[in-house]
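Support case: user asked for a sample of complex input and structure output to validate their parser. Sending the pair below.
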Amino acid sequence: MKDVVKIFKALGDENRLKILHIIGSQEVCACKLLEFLEIGQPTLSHHMKILCDSGIVSSRKDGKWTHYKINKDTIKHTADYMQVTLFGNTAAQSCCNGC
Amino acid sequence: MKDVVKIFKALGDENRLKILHIIGSQEVCACKLLEFLEIGQPTLSHHMKILCDSGIVSSRKDGKWTHYKINKDTIKHTADYMQVTLFGNTAAQSCCNGC
DNA sequence: CTTATACATCGAAATTTGTCAATATAAAAT
DNA sequence: ATTTTATATTGACAAATTTCGATGTATAAG
């Protein structure tokens, strides 16, 4: 359960949610993220560490740059946890409206 | 977006996740929750306030007792936010495996 | 080789959060 | 009426979190 707590903690910050929105389904480097956020570079680095440590984001070094992308498995598992583990819904109840 | 941040913040605490697990799909009073947690009564009251303020839990007073239950709509919306809003998946992509 | 760029780490300050003891409130039991 | 029970609120404190400036570390460019 501590893993899940860590994930929700990571998601519970406005700047980090903004970061995830910017990344979206792409792969984005830190310098690009900095352009869209009103925080300093060390602060961004700190947030990226939290997002990576929780498993929400994964990083790839490419020369000078570090590229980040969202780890969709983690997101999927966490969303499933919310609907299934936490509230006893079956997968059928929690999705597939009308299937 | 601040509403979502508030929800994730509320979920990002081990005791509050335990509380949600205990409540499950039932309606539970505070005194029952206290039996299962290793925290004092004021602390529980504090946590319940956070869960209620975020919309995850709703409360009903019944004489001396306060009964809590999980607000499934909030959970559903948040899980949808994770899969759809945050990552641009369609509902079809994010669920309904094999439908 | 020197400089510039992209990012990480360190140390410190300010804010937020989790917890408890003490107290308050309100309903039920005696 | 008084006491007990269930819960909320207040005030205080320690711990965690967010942020920044300064500095470190690679890599690329000149």
